[in-house]
């Protein structure tokens, strides 16, 4: 298995840093190939601008179209092209980051904004009366799996169904479904570590064992059963879920998960 770890934390000695290092050691020890994109160490540029597209940039700037033209002509910046090559190389992508303000750190969102360009991660495939492009289960990155490894400061009860922060599955849905599944990546259930700010050494040892077990079962873990866009569950072109497919009483984000 070839694994890309995309790591987003500014402190190498942090809990996130330890989990990243453990992932590298565990996977390499099991005979897998591993590459790491350490975004802070790389001084990753987190904002999209005309400089990303070189001679393909228009005036006024049109980010989707210009990014697609730059992708097609090979004029994206070298750092973006390198990350796209890593994604195409990988079988599995592990994202290691802390949950900050209910989402990923800005530097990681900037990685997505710049790397997931038009004609690479979206804007691909046939648009017709029966298909709406290759996305949500199809696309450039189909055949790959992804896992979010997320540290959370608060206790698990705060992120339960009736918790004040909302269910963790709802908070991660925009990343799981809207960023990863959109270009075709199968999404594994997340590894979420609660109470990260109050963890002691004994607690970390227990967490480390759990993390090792998850890493060593990546290939056999069933992905979240998101519905595929072009395979009959959605009306086209409205992309509205057809009536009666959902289990009784299910609403919200859960409508887009089978079973």
Q: Can you characterise this structure?
A:
There is one protein chain. With 259 residues, the chain is of the alpha/beta class. Strands 1, 2, 3, 4, 5 and 6 form a 6-stranded parallel sheet that branches. Strand 3, helix 4 and strand 4 form a beta-alpha-beta unit. Helix 1 runs parallel beside helix 6. The longest helix has 16 residues. The radius of gyration is 19 Å and the shape is globular. The model has no long low-confidence stretch (mean pLDDT 96).
User: Helical content, roughly?
Assistant: 25-40%
Total of DSSP H or I helical runs spanning 4+ residues: 7
Please give the number of β-strands.
Answer: 6
Ends distance: 29 Å
What class do helices, strands and sheet pairing give? alpha/beta
Q: What is the multimeric organization of the chains shown?
A: single chain
Low-pLDDT residue intervals, each spanning 5 or more residues: none
Taking the sheet with the most strands, its summary is: 6 strands, parallel
What is the strand content? 5-15%
Radius of gyration: 19 Å
User: Could you report the average pLDDT, rounded to the nearest whole number?
Assistant: 96
């Amino acid at each position: 298995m070839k694994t890309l770890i995309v790591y987003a934390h500014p402190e190498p000695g942090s809990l996130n840093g330890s989990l990243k290092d453990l992932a590298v050691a565990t996977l390499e020890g099991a005979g897998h190939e591993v590459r790491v994109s350490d975004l802070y160490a790389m001084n990753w540029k987190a904002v999209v601008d005309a400089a990303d597209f070189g001679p393909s940039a228009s005036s006024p700037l049109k980010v989707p179209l210009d990014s697609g033209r730059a992708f097609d002509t090979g004029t994206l910046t070298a750092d973006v092209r390198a990350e796209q090559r890593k994604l195409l190389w990988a079988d599995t992508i592990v994202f290691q980051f802390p949950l900050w303000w209910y989402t990923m750190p800005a530097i990681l969102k900037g990685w997505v904004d710049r790397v997931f360009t038009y004609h690479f991660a979206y804007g691909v495939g046939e648009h017709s009366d029966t298909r709406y492009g290759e996305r949500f289960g199809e696309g450039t990155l189909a055949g790959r799996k992804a896992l979010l490894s997320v540290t959370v400061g608060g206790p698990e009860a705060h992120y339960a169904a009736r918790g004040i922060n909302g269910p963790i599955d709802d908070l991660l849905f925009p990343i799981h479904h809207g960023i990863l599944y959109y270009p075709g990546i199968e999404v594994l259930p997340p590894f979420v570590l609660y109470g990260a700010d109050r963890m002691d050494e004994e607690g970390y040892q227990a967490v480390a064992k759990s993390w090792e077990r998850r890493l060593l079962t990546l290939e056999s873990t069933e992905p979240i059963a998101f519905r595929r866009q072009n395979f009959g569950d959605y009306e086209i072109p409205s992309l509205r879920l057809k009536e009666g497919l959902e289990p009784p009483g299910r609403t919200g984000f859960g409508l887009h998960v089978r079973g």
